[in-house]
User: What shape does this take?
Amino acid sequence: MRPVMTFALMTLRNLLRRRTIWGISIVILIALFGIGQIPGYGISNEGRFILDFGLFGLEIGALLLAIGLAANIYPRDKEQKTLMPLIAVPLSRGQYLMGRFIGAAMVQTAAMLAGCIGLMVILLMNGLNIPGDLFPAACLLLVEGWFLLAVVFFFSFWTSPPLNAPLTILLFILSQMPVSGFISILPRAQGFMRILRLLLPHMDVFHIKDPIAHGVGIPAVYFLLATLYGLAYMAFMLSMALAVFRSRDLK
Amino acid sequence: MKYLKLIILLALISLTGCRIDYDIEEVAPPEHLGETHEHEHDHTGAETEEHHEHDITAISGSDRHVHEAGARNHGTEWFFNQPWAARFIWSKMIRDTVILIFLAAVILLASRYRLRKKR
Assistant: This one.
């Protein structure tokens, strides 16, 4: 585990030196600030809109961060020829993947935490209360972000870099669809579409912005179930990524 | 070993219990979807309380009616058709979690076996 953590910290330092990450984080904060500036026009409970849009902004931020953080890691390592020396002696392929993933996940966690604090500040600035479930809701979005990070790693091993972002965004959109909506894309192949949908995650599991915005309580056990569900999908995608990486001939 | 992942995937898909997806509208018990509900009508100025089948096209004009706040009705279906509100799909979430962890372990073992065989 020690080599993985050392490599993860190395990855963290590398990623923090990149301008892309700071750019995406600043865009998320500006978007949140913009949401806070939407006038209420005298509508009661305008805080609902700020919360709803704010959490949606955090979710899109998690997607952008996942792509911005992980899409170029493996192709860059390969291009700069730093991959072979790493894998030749100190690290196995699994340790390389885990080190890179944990490093990127740490950056994503910090960025999402900053986004959540930003949303809290905006709510306070507008004289609104901070709902108790806001932090758990942001945590679920973070788990979704980790899953997306694993997806980006999988695509970075499997396809060329220009295809990575479109495929991840496509998977993100398709995973938001209900089964009936997904089948309606290709109604003739209903059975096939059902099986395909079964393999995709249900992203709505991570969305609890509506009940929070309307002041409806969420049972604590749901947070646990949704977190486990997200972590299981993340583990599945990482195992797929590692299987593809192990099958790659790097010479 | 080469086809192990495919065999396991096909076996899982062929099991009915693993095949049921959780589109809430599809798998919801009638008491969750409950088309019949209580609401107040405002036809002639006098409010009456009654139970009856709901006509979703009649939400304005002379058949305007008022619903109880926070209750499930034709306008709030989307809100209650979300996983946090549908306890009956939570067991399916646990099922998916277990299957995914199992598949991840199989994929890891299979890819390690292939790598060792290649060396």
About this structure: The mean pLDDT of chain A is 87. DSSP finds twelve helices and no strands in chain A.
